[in-house]
Amino acid sequence: MKRDSRLSSVLHALLHMAEREGPMTSGELAACMRTHPVVMRRTMGMLRAAGLVRSASGPQGGWRISADLAKVTLRQLHETLGEPAIFAVGNRHETPACLVEQSVNAALDGAFAEAEALLLARFGQITLADLAADFSRRHAAWRERNA
Amino acid sequence: MKRDSRLSSVLHALLHMAEREGPMTSGELAACMRTHPVVMRRTMGMLRAAGLVRSASGPQGGWRISADLAKVTLRQLHETLGEPAIFAVGNRHETPACLVEQSVNAALDGAFAEAEALLLARFGQITLADLAADFSRRHAAWRERNA
DNA sequence: TCAATTCGTAATAAATGAAGTTACATGAAG
DNA sequence: CTTCATGTAACTTCATTTATTACGAATTGA
């Protein structure tokens, strides 16, 4: 199964943008991600629709963050991306007539719901500012090593 | 992304088998699941390799449970099925050189690891006997309603 | 022994959805 | 008006599960 890596992508993009003065073009972002500029436009476009970033055409154009890093959580980004399915494992049929299958679904749904709630709660606690701070620490440590 | 429903399938199959005296053929199981007999053979074959079920060829052949329902947990079945990836969402690159991406991955990996640990812990607490008991309750309630 | 039943398994196709690509239109800077 | 950049539709590629076909092997019972 192919994993959805859009959340990972937009986080990577937003953090690079946060480390920069001017805007970043789709091409620059795509180079960071080793992907295609159109893929970046498509994905970042969802953030633009939510008002988290802005884009501009033409020379000196590109993408800029238009939100407070301390107020944007991973959960919010997950929602902005359309809340894609988190689990790659699931029930065979969603609303089966078979009573046996209903028991199976109830057990699995319960466990998955708990895990999803935990994951989303964690996502709700992590902001872009937290990630930026983590990056600063890693960057400082890296400079230390290469001093 | 296509969801892996094999755990759901084998649970459904095992519970039907538990409700039965004799063996069940791949065709009967496939009819319960609305799928193809070969799919059942393939999936059940993994359980057979782990000693959880037995199969026999020829007339009066089919599949039987060869384990104690109270001792088989959902976690064990998940492992028997090869521990398929639980999440449909993940990192773009697993071991990036980019420090920014390392921060992103660290945050996501932490949250996913917690959620996975919770899910597997829950799976470890649920046995086939629990599901069979839940089915009995549902079945009794169903007979009550249709009395 | 023969016919029917059932599993075992390889090979292949269908289905799904993200990712990648192409093509072209739109808009801004100079 | 040329260049750079986004916007977006259409299409292809890729990965993975599920479904199907085909055929072989084993078992039962007449």
TrEMBL record, chains A, B:
GO terms (molecular function) for this protein are: DNA-binding transcription factor activity
InterPro entries documented for this protein = Tscrpt_reg_Rrf2, WH-like_DNA-bd_sf, WH_DNA-bd_sf
**Origin: domain of life:** Bacteria
- A GO cellular component entry from the record: cytosol
According to the record, the signal peptide region is none
Pfam families named in the record: Rrf2 (PF02082)
This chain belongs to the protein called: Transcriptional regulator
Q: Which organism is it from?
A: Ancylobacter dichloromethanicus
